[in-house]
Design brief:
mainly beta
Length: about 290
């Protein structure tokens, strides 16, 4: 959930041939309500509901004046719940977001999604009594709907690039009126001790889309990494603390083609005089 999507600058533009336009800087929030709390010591709930107003812009073209819609009336809803078990040794959460727009103008119908729904689960589980090793992760499903022109533009956008000529498993569907996808990530992490261990597997399908009320830069990714290192936490004559670690990673698309892989090493020292020194090196290839 990216709260700056609510009340953002209007997303529509002026008609072709407009010589001048006066666009509002932001979308007015007509009303909003937020509710958060803990019904029990192990249960957390949160909700946000907002309604943003329809925005228009005055413009002039060929000596004539007009007014164009640049942002439709829209509803934004976010619901989050989290339940902990066994004193926090494990837990599970859920999150649902919904954006619903009233698109009356033809240009706006082809520029924006009419509806955007995202639903997800997340959770964690400690594997030992000392809470040293933990597995945690999340998974989500998205579905957006709109006109055929809007779905074509979305499939061809820089987040998806369904039109890539070198990818045989994708292609722009010119008759689609919806786009669906999924994503998730699974972690294994060592929470305590001097030895550092962290690893994860992640994926984001080509059709995953959450930007109506979230934040997302790319899709069509299957990736993994592993980190191993050591930290020195006991002060000595010359340092307060330090660490050193190395990581290996690889990223592929859904066709199995490697898009990036490499290794990364890092070290950091906090000296007794409070100076700090860090060094990093990486070698990667696409």
């Amino acid at each position: 959930f990216y709260s700056r999507r609510i009340g953002r600058a209007p997303q529509g533009g002026l008609p072709d041939g407009a010589d001048f336009g006066d666009l509002p800087m932001a979308t007015h929030i007509a009303g909003a309500a937020k509710l958060t709390g803990k019904p029990t010591s192990s249960t957390s709930l949160g909700m946000l509901h907002a309604l943003t107003s329809r925005e228009t812009a005055d413009y002039a073209a060929a000596g004539l004046r007009g007014r164009a819609e640049v942002e439709p009336l829209a509803y934004y809803g976010v619901t989050r719940g989290l339940q902990e078990f066994a004193g926090g040794r494990h837990g599970v959460g859920t999150m649902v977001t919904l954006v619903q727009r009233r698109l009356g103008d033809d240009a706006m119908r082809d520029a924006l999604n009419e509806q955007a729904l995202v639903a997800g689960l997340d959770g964690w589980r400690f594997l030992d009594r000392g809470r040293t090793w933990v597995v945690n992760g999340w998974g989500a499903f998205s579905r957006v709907t709109g006109t055929e022109a809007r779905m074509i533009a979305l499939q061809r956008s820089s987040r998806h690039y369904f039109q890539r000529p070198d990818v045989g498993y994708l292609g722009v569907d010119s008759s689609a009126t919806s786009l669906s996808g999924y994503a998730g990530r699974l972690f294994l992490n060592k929470e305590r001790g001097n030895v550092i261990v962290n690893s994860s597997l992640a994926l984001s399908s080509p059709g995953f889309e959450v930007n109506d009320v979230g934040y997302q830069s790319r899709t069509d990714v299957a990736a993994g990494h592993a980190v191993l290192g050591y930290r020195w936490t006991e002060p000595n004559r010359w340092r307060r603390e330090s660490n050193a670690w190395a990581a290996a990673y690889e990223r592929r698309d859904f066709g199995g083609n490697p898009t990036w892989r490499g290794v990364y090493v890092s070290s950091w020292v906090h000296f007794r005089n409070n100076w700090q020194l860090s060094a990093n090196a990486e070698r990667g290839a696409g």
